[in-house]
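Priority: medium. Attachment 1 of 2:
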């Protein structure tokens, strides 16, 4: 599977754009991108995210714990349901 990640520093913190698919085969790329983020809060553009498995969700949740805040922008409906099912609603906020 393939993904495109883009980290941009913005006035309010950091914007991470994710496009494509995140799974066990490429979650290390997501971890590396999240490790580059040195200031929060983290804003994640999910508008072009096609798929993310449990390893990707855990990578996002771990980063949210480290930075104290993460907002998922334009998450697909299936991702919102997954966040709810995993009880990560306080950790991974949605807009």
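Attachment 2 of 2:
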């Amino acid at each position: 599977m393939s993904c495109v990640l883009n980290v941009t520093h913005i006035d309010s913190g950091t914007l991470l754009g994710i496009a494509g698919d995140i799974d066990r085969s490429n979650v290390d790329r997501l971890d590396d991108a999240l490790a580059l983020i040195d200031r929060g809060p983290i804003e994640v553009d999910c508008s072009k995210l096609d798929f993310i498995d449990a390893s990707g969700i855990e990578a996002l949740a771990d980063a949210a714990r480290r930075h104290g805040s993460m907002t998922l922008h334009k998450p697909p409906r299936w991702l919102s349901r997954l966040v709810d099912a995993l009880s990560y609603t306080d950790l991974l906020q949605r807009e």
